[in-house]
Amino acid sequence: MPKGQGTMMMFFFVMLLIMVDPNIRTALGEGMSFLLNPSIGFGGTLPVISVMLAGTLTGLVSTGLRVWATDFVEMEKSRLLQRSFQKQMNDARIRRDTDKLNKLKRAQPHVMGKQMEIQSATMRPALGTMFLAIAVFWWLQVFVGTEVAFKCVSLPWTACWPLDGSFGLPYWVALYSVMSLPFTLAFSAGLKMWRLRRFDPETES
Predict the structure, then answer these.
(1) DSSP assignment, residue 40?
(2) Residue 179: CA atoms inside 13 Å, Cβ hemisphere, count?
(3) Nearest 5 degrees, angle CA 128-CA 18-CA 188?
């Protein structure tokens, strides 16, 4: 078994238990209430702000951890190496250069192994961020169900958005996604650009 795979399998097993057992989900949400209700709950009087801050929290922490643990320079080097390797493979096939093609095939496991190593390192911080996202998600479930006195909020696209409505998922999930996704994408792109500020693809290719 590859290094770290056992830990990842155990983590996903725990996540599966949380997802399928409503008692564990409720306990997790209630546990997070002790931390989040005093800080961003506002007594249930500002649910839109609470949802926005919950999305911002998960976006900041998950993106920050992922960017901190990801070596974007190595990822770009691996991408350029893979592109160059595929180009050489295609050229060798077109020219029917059997010797070069055999050499490239022998080197292919090393190239693929390097890529898998980088992908594995990128996945590791995702375990912690996934748990945080799930914990905040189930806090919102408990929060909207028990702390928010009113079930309809005014938003730019509608005068009354029912928080307890459902389209397969609760309406507050759509609100959470709309508010958190753009911020998370922008923050991630900004951090990635900062990490790659000294990387020159021309010198690495």
Answers:
(1) I
(2) 20
(3) 30
Is residue 50 classed exposed, middle or buried when 0-12, 13-18 and 19+ CB atoms within 10 A define those classes?
Answer: buried
DSSP of 86-152:
HHHHHHHHHHT-HHHHHHHHHHHHHHHHHHHHHHHHHHHHHHHHHHHHHHHHHHHHHHHHHT-S-SE
Digit-by-digit pLDDT tens for the chain (205 residues) are 444 555 666 766 777 777 777 888 888 889 999 999 999 999 988 998 999 899 888 888 888 777 776 776 777 777 788 888 888 888 888 888 888 888 888 877 877 777 777 666 666 666 677 788 888 988 998 999 889 888 788 888 888 888 878 887 888 888 888 888 888 888 888 887 887 776 666 555 5
Q: Are 63 and 184 in contact (CB under 8 A)?
A: yes
- Identify whether the C-beta of residue 140 lies closer than 8 Å to the C-beta of residue 126: no
CB 69 within 8 A of CB 127: no
Q: Are 30 and 140 in contact (CB under 8 A)?
A: no
Rounded-to-integer distance, Cα 186 and Cα 21, Å: 34
Confirm whether pTM is higher than 0.85. Answer: no
Q: Under DSSP, is residue 200 helix (H, G, I), strand (E, B) or coil?
A: coil
Do the beta carbons of residue 129 and residue 66 sit within 8 Å?
yes
Helix, strand, coil shares, percent, the chain, to 5: 80, 5, 15
